[in-house]
Amino acid sequence: MSTVVRIHQTGGPEVLRVEQIDPGLPGPGEVRLRHTAIGVNFIDTYLRSGLYSLPHLPHGLGFAGAGVVEAVGEGVTGFAVGDRVCYGTGPAGSYATERVMPAAVLIRMPDTLADDIAAGMMLRGMTAQYLIRRLYPVQPGDVVLFHAAAGGVGEIACQWLKALGATVIGTVGSDEKAELARQSGCHHTIVYTRENFKERVKEITNGVGVAVVYDGVGKAVFEDSLDCLRLRGMMCTYGNASGPVPPVSPITLSQKGSLFLTRPTLAHYTSTRAELEATASELLDVVANGTVKVTIGQSYPLTEASRCHQDLEGRKTVGSTVLLP
Predict the structure, then answer these.
(1) Is NADP tagged as a keyword (predicted)?
(2) Rounded to whole angstroms, how far apart are CA atoms 199 and 155?
(3) Which residues contact 57 (CB under 8 A, 6 or more apart)?
C-alpha cells in the first residue's frame, strides 16, 4: 500500500487527506516509482484551492519528485528497476510514497545529485530555464526584475541570471529574504512591504525601466510591474501567488510603451520529449558545475502536507520545499 495525500473537495489546507491506496501495477509505457523525496510547488495550492482544475476528485497533488524505479511496464525503454529518477512536470499525484506514472516524464538522476535537491528543484529549475533561456533569452547587460526573488524559482533564476551577465533586481517580503536574494545573485533588492518597488526600479534604472519582469506573484504586483518596463519590454506573469491577474486591455500595453505580455506554463515549453530532455539537461548542467546552488529551505513529513501548505501560502518558506515519505 502507498501512503498518499489527496483531496476529495477543493478548499484550504484542511482538505488534504492522508490515505492508504494500492498503487497498482504499471501498464504499457508506465513505471511504478518509490519516492525518496517529493517537491512542493505553489501550483499545488492552486489545484487544492480550485483555482486550477483537476480531471476528477478525489485526486492527488504534486508535480515533482525523486525516487527509485520499482517496476516497469510493457514497452518502457531507457529505464530499469533500480534506476534513480526525478521529474517536475507531473502528472499530478506525487504526494505519495509510491505511484504509477508515465515513464516519458522521467529524467535519469546523476549519481552526485541528492534526492531532496532533485525533487525540490526540478519544477522550479525547469521553470527558471524556460523563462530566462527561451521565453525571453536574457543577454549580458539586460536589467531584469524578478518578483519573489527568495522563493524556489527566484533562488535558481537569480543565480542563473547573474551568471548570464544580467543586472538583477529582486523583490522580497522581509530583510531576511533580502539577504537570501543577495546571496542568490540579486544586485538590488526591494522589500516591497515597506518600499514602492515601481519607484525603486525607476530610480535604479534612471527612469529607463527593465527589459523583462518575471512575476510569479500575480494580482498584487501586476499593474505596477507594467510601469517598470522599458519601451517594448516583456511582462511575463507565470504565477498567481496573490491571486489571478485581472483582464487587461491590449491598448494598455500600447500606451505603456508597446509592451509584450505573456502568461506561459512549463507544460507548453516541455511538450515533447526532446524539449523536456533539453530543459532538464541544461538545469542539471548548471547545478553540476556550481553555477546554481539549490537550497532546501524546509522539509516536512508527507503526512504533514497540510502544515506545509499553510506555511507556503503564509510566505513562511524560502528556497525549495520538500515532503519526505
Answers:
(1) yes
(2) 24
(3) 7, 8, 9, 10
Joined grid coordinates for residue 139: 543577454
Report the alpha-carbon distance of residue 322 to residue 65 in Å, rounded: 9
Q: Strand (E) positions, the chain?
A: 2-7, 16-21, 30-40, 59-60, 64-72, 84-87, 98-102, 107-108, 143-146, 167-172, 188-191, 210-215, 229-237, 260-262, 296-301, 320-324
The SS3 call for residue 288 is: helix
Answer yes or no: are the C-beta atoms of 250 and 272 closer than 8 Å: no
Question: For 237-251, what is each residue's pLDDT tens digit?
Answer: 998 878 888 899 999
Averaged pLDDT score across all residues of the chain: 96
Spatial neighbors of 108 by CB under 8 A, at least 6 apart, are: 78, 79, 83, 84, 85
Cell numbers 526591494 correspond to 190
Q: Strand 167-172 vs strand 188-191: parallel, antiparallel, or unpaired? A: parallel
CATH of domain 2-121+268-324: 3.90.180.10
How many residues appear in the chain? 325
What pairing do the DSSP bridges indicate for beta strands 30-40 and 320-324?
antiparallel
Where are the domains positioned within the chain?
2-121+268-324, 140-263
